[in-house]
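Journal club prep — side note

Before the paper discussion, L.F. wants everyone to see what a predicted structure for a comparable chain looks like in token form. Sequence:
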Amino acid sequence: MAGLINRNHLFRFIQFIQKPWVVHSVFWILVYVILLTSDKDDHLTVLEVVRNLISVSFYMLVVYINLGYLIPRYLNQKNFMTYVMLLLAMVAIFTPIKVLLLYITYEEAEPREMLVMNQHAIFLLLFLIAGGSTVIKIISDWQRHQRDRKDLETRRMQSEIKFLKSQINPHFLFNTLNSLYALTLMKSDKAPEIVIKLSEMMRYMLYESNERRVPLQKEVNYIENYLELETLRQSGRPDIQFKVEGAVNEQTIAPLLFIPFLENSFKHGLNHQINEGYVHVTMKVFENKLLLRIVNSKPTAPPPEAPTDKKSGGIGLVNVQRRLNLLYPNQFKLDISDSETEHIVELSLALTT
């Protein structure tokens, strides 16, 4: 309990010191302290403290008039020449005022003469301080703009990825429920087993695949369940193989990337073949790379419903390619090839741990 209270106090303190007025106050206090400690005299007098306070006050004046009025009113409106002229005019007005106030604090003639003779140096210092605040403002605004643009792009990508995933999941569920319905009509003993497999897959799709990355092992298990379900649905006829080579350890991957390829291999290949059809899936896993190869047989003649199916399958493949571009920019290679008898998908993908 005490630890929680201490963490809350620390969090509130961090929030407090990050407030702009606190940061600015600390900065000017440090500037004032530096001016005091840089004085060559061993003992500070009241007048020396006052002089440094006058100097810091004028530094603050030129900075905040510049930040609060000149920059937003003129520089941000692209009136660069007007801005520069007004900045010079402001410094030209404040320089003699500062010299006069400092002049009053001296009683000796020599320092007074030095002040009058060095007005140009005071003018230049005030101008450099005001100009420095402009540079800092421009850099901070640019950094904030870049950060906001990056955040906006990230949110846009996340929304698009969620949309693409939402198109994948219902499509798979629709196909599976159709198969389950057919088996139920035939009073097949395989229907309960399909329900169990489907429930395991739905649990993964609904509760675990919402993360940006999931353990590779869970994705492998999902593929195994998917292929087992297809084997049951196909009554054990076809040659369905899934082989994993290499060690699946702590690697992570974006969820549900491979399902559109697998769906496509069945929907446009195996589902339209009566005998000797096959789907062979090989996954080679390295420490930071994955190679996936899916080979499926093709029917000797196109099925009657091919145009409609092609449209649906095409959308699925377009979606997964878009997800790959968003999640793995310049980190994947996808090759899809066709022959008279086979359809081949080869995907090379960078893995993270």
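L.F.'s comment for the group: The mean pLDDT is 82. Keep this in mind when we get to the figures.
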